[in-house]
Write a structure and sequence with these properties.
Radius of gyration: 24 Å
CATH class of the largest domain: Mainly Beta
Strand content: 25-35%
CATH architecture of the largest domain: Sandwich
Shape: elongated
Distance between the termini: 17 Å
């Protein structure tokens, strides 16, 4: 009798965990869709070459940048197979205008660092990137420039060019308003094109999830 009671309690715990997990997942998705997608306020140079690989930690600064008003994130063309901690600081003279940091939870051809937005546009700012300790090479991508315009390093030297930097802000409209547009793009370039393809796949995935949850609860009962 005691074993049966313990089993019933375990079943109730598993059911409650499953229900809470599904509810949290639905809540996270709904919350994400109520936010605005980022938009590019100012694009940088198209990256063409590797400026420098950084082994371990390193810092570099780039002057003569324009910080647009309401910039909430800055995207850097830094390539890494395994990301490293990034700290970004924007100066006007010796004054810090805004700053932000990003943990090593990134990989790919760029890293986006959130920063505190300003209400005004500021020109002739200096952007400094501090790369934390890492075991893999971090590659800075950009364009070659004259030394006076290139990235500077704390030792007083210069890299071969400028880093590609893009300034991002909150977009107009919510992700909800772009669902059909995204679905339409996903349906292009296939044997049977159309928005209905993405919507059908989403419906099938949802149906499979409901069936899987139902079967799990049935097996536990």
């Amino acid at each position: 009798m005691e074993d049966a009671s313990e089993r019933m309690r375990a079943v109730r715990v598993v059911k409650l965990t499953l229900v809470v997990g599904v509810a949290v997942l639905i809540g996270v998705v709904a919350y994400t869709l109520t936010r605005s997608p980022p938009r590019v306020l100012r694009a940088g140079l198209t990256p063409q070459t590797v400026l420098s690989p950084l082994e371990g930690a390193g810092e570099a600064c780039q002057g003569d940048e324009l910080l647009p008003a309401h910039t909430s994130a800055i995207r850097l063309s830094i390539v890494a197979y395994i990301g490293a901690r990034m700290r970004l600081t924007v100066y006007s003279g010796s004054q810090i205008l805004t700053e932000g940091s990003r943990g090593p939870d990134w990989t790919g051809t760029s890293v986006t660092v959130p920063v505190k937005p300003l209400a005004r546009t500021v020109s002739n700012v200096k952007l400094c990137v501090d790369v934390g300790p890492n075991s893999e090479a971090i590659y800075l991508f950009g364009r070659e420039t004259p030394p006076a315009q290139a990235l500077s390093v704390p030792t007083g030297g210069r890299l071969s060019g400028r880093l590609d930097v893009a300034y991002l802000g909150s977009g107009k409209g919510l992700w909800w308003s772009r669902v059909l547009t995204v679905a339409r793009h996903m349906g292009l370039g296939r044997a049977f094109s159309g928005t209905w393809i993405a919507l059908l796949i989403a419906a099938l995935v949802g149906a499979v999830g409901v069936l899987a949850a139902g079967l799990t609860l049935r097996e536990l009962s």
